[in-house]
Amino acid sequence: MSSEFDSQREQMVRDQVEARHISDPHVLQAMRSVPRHEFVRLDMLDHAYSDNALPIGMEQTISQPYIVAYMLEQLALTGTETVLEVGTGSGYQTALLSLLVKEVISIERQQPLAEQAAQVLDRLGYDNIVIHAGDGSQGVRDMAPFDAIIVSAAAPSIPSMLMAQLADGGRMILPVGDRHHQYLEKVTRVGNSWHIEQLISVVFVPLLGKQGFGHHEQKSERG
Ligand code: SAH
């Protein structure tokens, strides 16, 4: 069974990631190493390496492999960074980050998901990760500044508290838009200016919380 997953994973990296021009060798290596099937629900095992997002419970999803690879590559990680991840979800991307940086601080709003991800990551031996349960739209002030921030849920606008927690020279990537359609944006901090670049079109679940979408807010998109 495990060699079956190994070959599916190799195929995923080749056909979904390399074929779409992701070339950072560390990102590719990490994707070849992290067992994505350990982070999906049992009833989704057959789809663990397929080219899409999958449900992980509590109305959340594990992101599509290509999008995860794209976001990680954009952060241009060198291995020395302290990184904040907002929206731990399954913990899959957290495991990739663990291999790419010095320390990962990850925050998840839904306690049961945070606990489950922490358990899987611990069982698999990833040991440079601290998982918090709470509202990550406000960042994790105690542990700031961060060399990189990656947000796995869509924000209506770039949370100012996350911008403030970015180190000088730091990079942040996040989906920004309405509840149904967003663009990935990359924010680079240089001193006290923040450069913003709009990248590809994406669809993520909403970032809830103080600097995200309101819990009960209805759609507010323009026409
Ligand atoms: N990278 C994860 C993506 C999970 S989906 C994976 O591949 O598994 C996005 C996650 O963001 C969900 O688990 C959701 O609960 C979480 N989330 C939404 N708003 C949040 C907030 N304000 N703070 C922390 N996590 C949040």
Beta strands, count:
9
Give the helix/strand class: alpha/beta
Strand order of the largest sheet: 5-4-3-6-7-8-9
Average pLDDT: 95
Shape: globular
List cofactors, ions and other ligands: S-adenosyl-L-homocysteine
Question: Can you tell me the residue ranges where pLDDT is under 50 for at least 5 consecutive residues?
Answer: 218-223
Order of helices and strands: HHEEHEHEHEEHEEE
Radius of gyration, Cα only, in angstroms?
16 Å
Distance between the termini: 49 Å
Q: Give the biggest beta sheet.
A: 7 strands, mixed
Report the CATH superfamily of the domain at 64-215. Vaccinia Virus protein VP39
Question: What does this protein look like?
Answer:
The chain contains six helices and nine strands. The protein has 223 residues and is α/β, with parallel strands linked by helices. Strand 1 (54-57) and strand 2 form a beta hairpin. Helix 1 crosses helix 3 and helix 2 crosses helix 4. The termini are far apart. S-adenosyl-L-homocysteine is lined by residues 56, 60-63, 86-87, 89-90, 92-93, 107-110, 113, 135-137, 152-153, 205, 207-209, 212.
Question: Which properties best describe this structure?
Answer:
binds S-adenosyl-L-homocysteine; disordered C terminus; 9 strands; 223 residues; Rossmann fold; 27% strand; two-stranded antiparallel ribbon; single chain; alpha/beta; seven-stranded mixed sheet
